[in-house]
Amino acid sequence: MMNLSTVIAYGCRYCTPPIKQLLSYTTLLNPHHHHLQARPLSFNNLNLPNFNLLLTGNCLFFRMERFWSGSGINKNKQMVEHLRRYGVISSMKVAEVMETIDRGLFVPDGTSAYVDSPMPIGYNATISAPHMHATCLQLLEENLQPGVHALDVGSGTGYLTACFALMVGPQGRAVGVEHIPELVASSIQTIEKSAAAPLLKEGSLSLHASDGRQGWPECAPYDAIHVGAAAPEIPQPLLDQLKPGGRMVIPVGNMFQDLKVVDKNLDGSISIRSETSVRYVPLTSRDAQLRGY
Ligand code: SAH
Question: Do 241 and 218 meet the contact criterion of CB atoms below 8 Å apart?
Answer without folding.
Answer: no
